[in-house]
């Protein structure tokens, strides 16, 4: 991988189109995210938010256009792809933890396989990350023994264990009981404050106002607004954004 200079955007999505069969789900999407920026993505269901995350993480290919992460194009397969995925941490709505592995094993698996850490190094680092997300005392339990909020924090620790350059969050609190939302947002806000580059699909407006530098509003596969949190919530420009906000506020 080439060494990127500090003014290379962390993420550069250029003229990306993506189809599923005949449905055009990303339409000429252009997006540059500088390092350290926190971007919240909002938009109605089906507008392409998850697909945008998935093309950045190379879980989906694009039909045209390009995606660069820290200046590097997306490799097609193999070792380089595993390494690129390690650069891009992803946290999903459904925590996607390995059910038959302990919380700590969930966190150490990737680093030992992809980053070549020894088991003891990975465990040491894993425990540090579990402490950071506030669940070190759950290390030896299985995911099903944890609350939803704890599972999602474990998923964040697992993603961080790969030492990603950027973190993608796809509706990380949507599957949680309301009382567990804030403990997860707290961890995310902490990461944002430490300078992590983040793309966060979430309708949590409190988080957007507090932690985001920028808000994108998507509709029908397009980025319709790209502005500040204040700009978006106080004075959305498009009819579609106003309509969306009137339904979620
Ligand atoms: P959002 O996350 O904003 O709800 P998605 O990115 O999940 O939107 O979906 C955008 C569109 O692409 C939707 O119409 C959805 O049905 C479609 N879609 C998403 N994933 C697939 C897939 N794997 N196969 C076919 N269609 C898909
Ligand atoms: Mg989605």
TrEMBL record:
Gene Ontology MF terms in the entry: ATP binding; ATP hydrolysis activity; ATPase-coupled polar amino acid-transporter activity
CDD domains: ABC_HisP_GlnQ
EC number: 7.4.2.1
Domain named ABC transporter: residues: 11-245
Pfam family for this entry, one: ABC_tran
A GO cellular component annotation in the UniProt record: plasma membrane
Main location: membrane
Designated name of the protein: ABC-type polar-amino-acid transporter
Organism: Actinopolyspora mortivallis
């Amino acid at each position: 991988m080439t060494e990127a200079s500090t003014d290379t955007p962390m993420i550069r999505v250029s003229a990306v189109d993506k189809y599923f069969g005949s449905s055009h789900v990303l339409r000429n999407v252009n997006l540059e995210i500088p390092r350290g920026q926190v971007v919240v993505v909002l938009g109605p269901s089906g507008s392409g938010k998850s697909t945008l995350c998935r093309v950045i993480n190379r879980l989906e290919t694009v039909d045209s256009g390009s995606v660069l992460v820290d200046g590097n194009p997306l490799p097609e397969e193999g070792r380089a792809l595993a390494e690129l995925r390690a650069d891009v941490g992803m946290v999903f709505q459904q925590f996607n933890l390995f059910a038959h592995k302990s919380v700590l094993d969930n966190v150490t698996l990737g680093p030992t396989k992809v980053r070549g850490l020894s088991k003891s190094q990975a465990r040491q680092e894993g425990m540090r990350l579990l402490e950071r997300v506030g669940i070190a005392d759950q290390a030896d339990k299985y995911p099903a023994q944890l609350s939803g909020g704890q599972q999602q924090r474990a998923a964040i620790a697992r993603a961080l264990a790969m030492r990603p350059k950027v973190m993608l969050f796809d509706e990380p609190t949507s599957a949680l009981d309301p009382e567990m939302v804030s403990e997860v947002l707290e961890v995310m806000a902490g990461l944002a404050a430490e300078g992590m580059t983040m793309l966060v699909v979430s309708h949590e407006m409190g988080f957007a106002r507090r932690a985001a530098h920028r808000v994108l509003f998507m509709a029908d596969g397009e980025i319709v607004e790209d502005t500040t949190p204040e700009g978006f919530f106080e004075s959305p420009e498009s009819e579609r954004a106003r309509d969306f906000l009137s339904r979620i506020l």
